Amino acid sequence: MRRKLGRSGIEVSSIGMGCWAIGGPFYEGEDDLGWGIVNDQESIRAIHCGIDHGVNFLDTADVYGAGHSERVISRALEGRRQDVVLATKFGLRFDESTKQVLGSDATPEYVARACEASLKRLNTDFIDLYQFHLNDFPAAEIGEVVDTLEALKSQGKIRSFAWSTDFEDRALEFVNSKGCTAIQHQINVIDDSPRVIAVCEANNLASINRGPLAMGLLTGKYDASSVIAENDVRGKNSPVWMQYFQNGKASAT
């Protein structure tokens, strides 16, 4: 089943494939931000399987695996780029060699560089949906980011853009931008996100569901006795924002 990606006119499958996990390990200090060791060939087979069964929307970020997720997607899409809608994100600086996240950056110069780097890693001439990755970036300071995104769209480097944010006031700052077509946000039976949904509905923006299964918590696979691997973002070295798993175990939320 296909649907329009907001007001962009781009058609996407109703179910997309999130590509955070296929990036493998990366870190912020001692915090694990990846989902453990991955097999790139298995990741490529999974992408091919999704495409073969009608999934045409791939969502990643430049920081996932410190660039590795984008590189794996590039390999998977050799000869198949026309079959997919590619979404990636920007806003976090990182070192590909050390796999360390180095902080955030939303300056026009950095956004332009990040876009060029993603285009190169993805081996594509354009990004279908380019998403701002800084969830709580001050709404009042977003003007330069929007201007930069509109410029990238005018240059043909991106087709549309979005904000990955859980905040209504941030979402509202994007609605008057012609190139904006979506908001990506947390939504599942634990976090229903009615205010962001309302912004999307009122402004013909796509609501991209981030975390429908609460990072696995809602799959039924984990219970109080389950222990997550240490090198998993949900493990005992998880970042402070981890909600659904605490100290390496499923949360009681």
Structural notes for this entry:
The protein has helices at residues 40-52, 68-76, 108-122, 143-154, 168-174, 194-202, and strands at 2-4, 11-13, 17-18, 27-28, 31-32, 57-59, 85-90, 92-95, 100-104, 129-132, 161-164, 180-186, 206-210, 245-246, 249-250. It contains six helices and 15 strands. Helix 1 (40-52) crosses helix 2 and helix 3 packs across helix 4. The model has no long low-confidence stretch (mean pLDDT 96). The radius of gyration is 17 Å and the shape is globular. Helix content is 26%, strand content 21%. The longest helix is centred in the middle third of the chain and has 15 residues, at 108-122. The chain folds into two domains: 2-212, Alpha-Beta Barrel (TIM Barrel); 217-253, no CATH class. The strands form five sheets. Strands 3-6-7-10-11-12-13 form a seven-stranded parallel β-sheet, with helices on one face. Strands 1-2 form a two-stranded antiparallel sheet. By secondary structure, the protein is of the alpha/beta class.
